[in-house]
Specification:
Strands 1-4-5-3-2-6-7-8 form an 8-stranded mixed β-sheet, with helices on both faces. The chain has 2 domains: 166 residues, 3-Layer(aba) Sandwich (Rossmann fold); 95 residues, Glutaredoxin. The radius of gyration is 29 Å and the shape is elongated. The protein is an alpha/beta fold.
């Protein structure tokens, strides 16, 4: 079932959704709300990825599309009982409505359920302060969609707040699992590490930062032709642990004292990455530590801890309020003085003027 509403508002959309669900006789059974800030050029790809994720995580999917129209207008498409469990609401905003996306999205959220925000491209520098990001418990960005992924990842690191994540980190899941398994099988002291990948490959830089933060050793970053991360080597007193992948599909897995093995290590698409990321809805402290190590490696200043930043923001707001209150009090005091002067008979300022003329 597809319901199309033109020149509509949020109450009409909510009523149409309620009536449609009542006609279908289906229970909700939805576990979260996924908001997607989609663009016209990437809408189809983002929609497909969100639908794939909804097969594992039944959700209310809200796609927010800001169109180029100048007329103030809100259009909506509601998809129910299709091939994906859950509900799909496509909101198209134009004109001044584009500037108030949070007011349109807020009534669409499921009550008492987690909210996840995903920017397939053009994510804000500070997702936690974005008007839509503030509605979410979890915020997903993708530095790979930027023209400079490494710079974009550094910006994410500088402005990181609990609940933020980036698909650059998700791309490392299989690599991290293999390296952890290798150290479980061969628990030797690590002397150093080397990560090899293309110069502009953000996952390779983040991998080096993660190893540095966890192993507390020097990690060398070397360039290669790719695709993606080519190899990771951990040097130990008894030999090297090496995971090498040159075709982007399979990797050789070598541990001292054991035969070399071949393991599946393909480069995953956006559908798989988003599906994995929705499995976790709490803050990722390991990712936060890796971002801090990334900034240290790049010589960037570390962000202030969240409580300190919150206190500073609260202090600035309080100071502004005090200043504003003081200005108002000053204005009221001046008005009272002026009123008192005018009640004098003759007014004091007039009497002073006469006295000055007499002298």
């Amino acid at each position: 079932m597809i319901i199309t509403l033109t020149h509509t508002d949020t109450s009409e959309i909510a009523n149409a959704l309620l009536k449609a669900r009542s006609r279908l006789g289906s229970a909700s059974g939805l576990v979260l709300t996924l908001i997607v800030a989609a663009e016209q050029r990437s809408f189809a790809k983002a929609y497909a990825a969100a639908q794939t994720a909804a097969r594992e995580h039944p959700c209310r999917l809200v796609l927010v599309v800001k169109t180029a129209g100048k007329t103030d207008r809100l259009d909506a498409d509601i998809h129910l009982a299709e091939d994906v469990p859950g509900e799909v609401i496509v909101l198209r905003l134009s004109g001044e409505v584009r500037e108030h996306a949070e007011s349109v999205v807020l009534p669409m959220l499921l009550p008492d359920s987690p909210v996840v925000m995903w920017w397939p491209s053009n994510a804000p520098d500070t997702p936690g302060d974005d008007v839509l990001g503030q509605l979410a418990d979890r915020r997903i960005t993708d530095a790979a969609s930027s023209s400079d992924p490494i710079k974009a990842l550094e910006v994410r690191a500088i402005h990181h707040s609990p609940g933020d994540t980036d698909l650059t980190w998700t791309r490392l899941t299989l690599w991290r699992a293999l390296l952890t398994a290798a150290l479980d099988q061969y628990p030797m002291r690590i002397l150093s590490a080397t990560v090899v990948g293309p110069r502009n490959n953000a996952p390779a830089n983040l991998m080096a930062a993660w190893l540095e933060s966890r192993l507390k050793v020097s990690v060398t970053r070397k360039p290669s032709a790719g695709p993606g991360i080519t190899s990771v080597k951990l040097e130990t007193p008894g030999g090297d642990i090496v995971i090498a992948r040159e075709d982007g599909k399979t990797a050789s897995y070598a541990i001292p004292g054991q035969p070399r093995r071949t393991v599946a290590l393909k480069r995953r698409d956006i559908n798989e990455l988003l599906t994995e990321e929705l499995r976790r809805l709490d803050a990722d402290d390991v990712y936060a530590a890796a971002l801090a190590a990334l900034l240290t490696r790049e010589g960037q200043p570390l962000p202030e801890p969240e409580p300190v930043r919150k206190r500073k923001e609260a202090g600035a707001i309080a100071a502004a309020r005090v200043a504003k209150t003081g200005a108002r009090a000053g204005s009221r005091k001046a008005a009272r003085v002026q009123e008192a002067l005018s009640r004098q008979d003759p007014p004091l300022h007039v009497a002073h003027a006469h006295a000055a003329g007499a002298s």
